[in-house]
């Protein structure tokens, strides 16, 4: 494991949540675990910022929430990506790819 | 659409807060549970796992707060909570809250009242008119003269030329600028009604449709074949015809001519002039029949029509302006004999005709400035009140700040409190305006035939809201910023010793400006009130007691000269026979009214009559007995003889004219020449000089001639009550000729309210503002000084304990107060000195720089400050030094 969890680049949390939900509908905890797992512990989410982002995405109509029972017999909201959310995710991914490529080129210029 | 969803969600969490809260609780609970379950897989006990999760994620409440703060409704929620808190706070001190709200409400209310008038006169578009913003007035303008005198309305030929040759307007209309009063022959009896003559395009161009029948059309308004048709005003139709549904087609006899009623105007439509609600509209081409003034339609010198064009969408105002100038020039080229050499100009149409707008706005601006100062004083009061309270609340602020409230939150809360105060005051002020505006309207003389609607519409509401908000922020911001700048540590520890100097500097500034503003208003108030007293005691040159006047015009009914003479002779006999009547006579029009006839005279005997020697005079035409009736002393010679009406060649002059022509020599028997006549007119009497145009005028030379036109004013003197005489005279007029009615019938004292109107209005309004200013300032000063002294109780206690005398303490307090007063007075009286010049045109018998007024105001304010210092100082001295010291 890397030594310390990093801070997320500003504005990328939304994209990461959308990506996670694009794989399969999931509840809040699931999203945070998935992001931590995939990033190999580089990004660790705080519940406050996670649910703040989820609330924002839901209000913008990018994701939809639904109450469902969990494995250990509690209720949790499961979120799915809406069509609009998928479109946004696609465009954000493309934009991100362009930016990363550009930044890399700049950094590698000699 | 996502913003809609955002709003919907926000509203849901605002109004169903419990439910939303519970859901968030549950979701976060599930999250924590799952996180704990994960940890328990690593072998931790449940309790340990939960603890670990909490360490990682922070408290549940904290997390909730973070999530909540993301939505816009969070801001609304805090604002709402601040508002509730502010409400509780105000309710806790009902006395001081009421005092603050009342003071502010007076300031805001008075300004709103003035604004309702600005709105009614200048901002409100004419009611019931389609797209009023496209309408432009056209006026002929003399670029060489200033003010309203430089503007002339159009003549009928002018109007036709403009109407037929312009390209800027989609259409033009014209109407009679001076509404015509006509005698309506109501089944054999005369009743005076008000009408407006309008062009055939008037109703159609304004987009006004009749509610019954039709409106006046272009065919009705042909100069070659004018149609005697009228459209009734809605109110007139309701009141005089009982809303008769079969009115169309019936006849209305006006000034002896039968008119056919073709329609009824819609309710609320009253034409385009403020204050006038015509009973009927008739075609402009009927003017000669209505006024009995033949040739008006071809007269290039009779300027009587206000013309209005509807701007085409593609034309700009400046384009229209350029075009009317060209059209006026064309008229002058085609008619060089007019020698007009004038220009034309356009104004956007409002209810006040363009050239007169400047006077209304000047007057309302003056009032706004005056009442703005009153509001300023009220605001200063509130600001020092809040400042004092803010100082008392430093501890509370420190606690809030320690609990994590940011500076922004603290400022927000203080501002919410002050805007709540000003909002309440604004509401009260609106009510105040609602009640006072009609009172202000009641100041207008009853003889002015004006019915003014002063609606409280959205413009008034918006004005009040904005002014309240500005006040709230203006007086709330400084205390708020001061409050938010708390030193947590020192304030949470016990002592909050006032770190005096900086704070009291702000307070001193407030006091100084208050005194300055008060001084300005007091100077204005006392000047205007004293001017009003002077004006009321000005001798108009005639005796206003026990005299009545009635305006008559039998020629309007088409009477011949002999009929007119017969009517007046009979009327004169009837009136003289009334009990109590001691004299009666006629005059062509009363002095101090709007009508006047001006000319110039020369001395026939002067060697070379050259036009520069001509003395400009006002000419009045009177019947025998006029001077006796009006109580004008005849200084020399004798009155006109009865029955000698036709005898020309004699005149009576006033003393001013006699002095101008012959200094101290006897004018009797000398001759003066009107209009360069050879033989001249013999002077048979000299009367005392009076006031003829305005009460404030310098002596004007006047000559009286015995020839009267058919339109006259009857004046009657009685030994009894003049008001009781009115009814008797009305009955006599009716019994002599039932077709005739007096257009104005009033006692001379009622008549005099017209020339006294400006002085009375300004005297009352400025007097009121001065009184309010003094009251508010006194309360404010007393409050602030009491507060300052109470803060220094400890210091005073020490001083007394160390052996200071009472007088030393008194001097300490008073010196500070007087220093501020002196500063305020210097500033205030300086401003007043400049501002009073604005009043000079409406002041009677007092100069705007009257030294007694300035000294008096200064002394009065000093006395107020001394009193405001003395009472708190006495109280401070009375405190036992031991108590004061222990107070620490």
SSE diagram, text form:
The complex is a heterodimer of chains A (110) and B (888).
Chain A: H1 13-23, E1 26-27, H2 28-38, H3 47-59, E2 63-69, E3 75-81, H4 83-108
Antiparallel strand pairs in A: 1-3, 2-3
Helix pairs in contact in A: 1-2, 1-4
Chain B: H1 2-15, H2 17-41, H3 46-57, H4 60-68, H5 73-92, H6 94-123, E1 135-141, E2 151-152, H7 156-165, E3 169-176, E4 180-186, E5 189-198, H8 202-206, E6 212-213, E7 229-232, H9 234-241, E8 251-254, E9 257-264, E10 280-283, H10 287-291, E11 305-311, H11 317-334, E12 343-348, H12 357-392, H13 394-402, H14 407-441, H15 458-484, H16 488-492, H17 501-537, E13 547-552, H18 561-576, E14 581-587, E15 597-603, E16 615-621, H19 626-630, E17 634-637, E18 650-654, H20 655-662, E19 671-674, E20 681-687, E21 702-705, E22 712-718, H21 722-736, E23 744-747, H22 748-791, H23 793-801, H24 806-835, H25 851-878, H26 881-886
Parallel strand pairs in B: 5-10, 7-9, 16-21, 18-20
Antiparallel strand pairs in B: 1-2, 1-11, 1-12, 3-11, 4-5, 6-9, 7-10, 8-9, 13-22, 13-23, 14-22, 15-16, 15-19, 17-20, 18-21, 19-20
Helix pairs in contact in B: 1-2, 1-5, 2-3, 5-14, 6-12, 6-14, 6-15, 7-11, 12-15, 12-17, 12-22, 14-15, 17-22, 17-24, 17-25, 18-21, 22-25, 24-25
Describe the structure.
The complex is a heterodimer of chains A (110) and B (888). Chain A is an alpha+beta fold and 110 residues long. Chain A is 55% helix and 15% strand. The longest helix of chain A is centred in the C-terminal third of the chain and has 26 residues. The mean pLDDT of chain A is 84. About 1% of the residues of chain B have low confidence. In chain B, a hairpin with a 2-residue loop joins strand 4 and strand 5. At the A-B interface, helix 2, helix 3 and strand 3 of A face helix 1, helix 2 and helix 4 of B.
